[in-house]
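Today's session is about reading a structure prediction critically. Students often jump straight to the picture, but the first step is always the sequence itself: look for stretches that repeat, for charged clusters, for runs of hydrophobic residues. Only then move on to the predicted structure, which in these notes is written as discrete structure tokens rather than atom positions. Here is the chain we will use throughout the hour.
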Amino acid sequence: MSEKLRLLVLVLAYNAEKTIVDVLDRIPRELEQSCEVHVLVLDDCSHDTTLERARERLAGFWCPGEALRNPVNQGYGGNQKVGYRYAAEHGFDVVAMVHGDGQYAPECLPRLVEPFTRRDQRVDAVFGSRMLHKRDALKGGMPRYKFVGNMVLTTLQNRLLGTHLSEFHTGYRLYRVETLSALPLELNTNDFDFDTEIIMQVVFSGGTIVELPIPTFYGDEVCHVNGLRYAWDVMLTSLKGRLIRMGLFYDPKFFFPQTEIARKVSTFSFPSTGKAVADAIRPGSLVLDLGCADEELSTHLQREKGCTVISCPPDVDLDRELPDAPWDKLDYVVALDVLEQRDSAEEFLARLRERLTDNPGAICIAGSANVGFFITRLMLLFGQFNYGRRGILALSHKRLFTIASLARVMRYAGFRVVRKQIMAAPYPRALGNNRLSRWLISVNRLLARVMPGLFAYQVLLEVRHTPGTESVLRRAQR
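Below is the predicted structure for this chain, in token form.
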């Protein structure tokens, strides 16, 4: 590269007065060949002389450096946030996290920095892994219970998140500062599972992680980690990540355009809502699609059933008006995922009924997710009410309905239910169209027949409008 990387060596320190000077002395001057190096010792409100000893050693050091002390203890994750903010504000290209207790060898820094200098591949993070050569980890003094725990947790996390890392739990990490600046780090925990959260953010945002082997060293440093609580936290976070990737959960700190694993499953390959609507519409009908939620449905109606489909223009605000259409000639009005998004479902239905006054034969097909679905109830049982990008609790939903409340809203708005269909959850969207998802649909449909209020994921209502008293009076007078 024509210009050297601006590298910040971030030394995280807490009660490290015995080791901090040695760690600084071990930072290799060889880094100057490829980087403009700056050292920051970030003391997380220690109770000893860590700050003073660091400042003494940095005076006259071979590269610029300073030592800062957090006024209040920020925790392992919080201390990283402060350091990464410093790196961003001072225009560094790469930040290398080194522990002040000497557990990770500073001598490895030149090799770990090297991937950031490559022109043929963009690297967002480089991890020094103790587990690429597992025997070396044991030779380096890693306790056997930590070795086994590391392997088990990493294997489970890889399975959940679709990653292939040799170690999730190394504390030797280098990040591209530009990548860190694009991540919502302020939303992350301040605890030790911060490292898992930032891995998930880098992976979910489409970033590239490179692992390189490092030696393992365990000395007399004090471990501040509660192992059982840490294992619980990282597994809970990883499980949440899996649900987010499946589109079943939402957390703003983990959501990026690349987060969800897209399932290319046809609407008509399983008993879906779109398929049920298509089956209900007669061939050759004139259809107004107010929701435009499923382009595959519209295409199927036109190609397979010879229907004419009128889509609602995107600039029409359904909370204030309905689109121009031949209302007196329509055979069907489809309103999937429409009522939940209205400021007032009642006012929307009143306008719809008025437009259909002179078309007594028109059928409206309206659908809504059932907020009483058993999974939502289980979430409430455990104190959760999590909105998501789609599904029952989609972020765009302003109204929530049960099967009974949807029918009641329709009745009060002057619509008569002609037919009701109970739909199972679209398991293939999350699990793929396989035997498991098809079996779950079969079981779900069976249970929904017995207890629809609890096991129906969605309800479809075919309704006809009834004439209002004003309309009846006008006709009587005519």
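Discussion point for the tutorial: The mean pLDDT is 90.
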